[in-house]
Amino acid sequence: MTKYTHKKKITIAKATAGPTISPAQEEELSGLREDIRSLGRRTTAQAIELGGYLARVKAILPEKALGAWIKAVCKFTPKTGRNYIAVHANLIDYKERLEAAAVAPTVLFVLAYAEQPDVERVISAIETGEQLTVAQVKAMVGVEARRKVATTDEALNVGGIAGLRKAAELKTTQDVAQFHGLMSAVLKRVEKAMEPIAKGRAVKKGMLQEAIVYDCRHAHDLLNSIAAPMKAELVAHVNWRPARLPEGSAWRTVQALLHRMGGVDGWPDRTEFVGWLQAEVIPALRFVVHGEALTSTEEEMEIADTSDDLASQEPAEASDRVQRGEEATLARINSVFNGMIAPASPAGASRKRRSVPSAAAA
User: Fold this and answer.
1) Whole-model pTM?
2) Taking the CB of residue 67, how many other CB atoms lie within 10 A of it?
């Protein structure tokens, strides 16, 4: 059997390229091969640079020849080569920030296929000192969920209860991934904000609020969408809204806590702030992210979404006002038609008529 040597791989790659390769292009490919081999350890900068080299190779070679060339020269699979190309094509605008943060190529591969807001959120989290794993980054950007949805789009065209359940499953999968990503980022930032305590320094409440308040608000909405049943109102024209999860449950504690953390007015003052983070916030976040047991306390159970009470009162009050107004109007109409309101007296009318000429004369 003929030995499949490295030179033979190169020969096959050149032969597969076909007659469209000009001598100038062959010379360029040779130069690119040397440039790629000169790259040492795959740092962030080198990963982006490698993607640029492979993008130039892709512009020269047909698709099949590109895969053979990547295998022969780069010693990895064509899929990995396309990942490097995607990194260069989609993350070039973030090049300086990614290099400064020393983001690993495996994380770059995930970010290369993510939406721009998700890329920005992940990079910002890394810049604050968070050590994110590839799995956490995937959860934050929802790559796996989107791939699953993309391969099962036909399920959205299935009718009946079975089709509805399938559509709900796809939606829930995506929401859960996004929820977990948000909560992972929030936990990292809270733990980072608590580090000054070990050095006897204060925790900066304002900076932490600014960093996580909107993520907590969005996570609260996602949790409601995933787990909370819809609650009908007493007034028919008022939209249904997510209900509270069962009181006493751990997820009810998380739901209430996220509602509180999603508004700066609900945070404790500076004297109770650190204790609140240690006793309530971090345990609840670790319950969500890592599955650690959450010990409920009476104080935690009393955390309530005050907006729920207000929202339930406002429709009732509005309905009462409308009803009272309608009743008053009907009573007035009935009284007029029944002669209960006497017309203006003739004397009053005559006085009014007498006053008109004097006013006109004046």
Assistant:
1) 0.49
2) 18
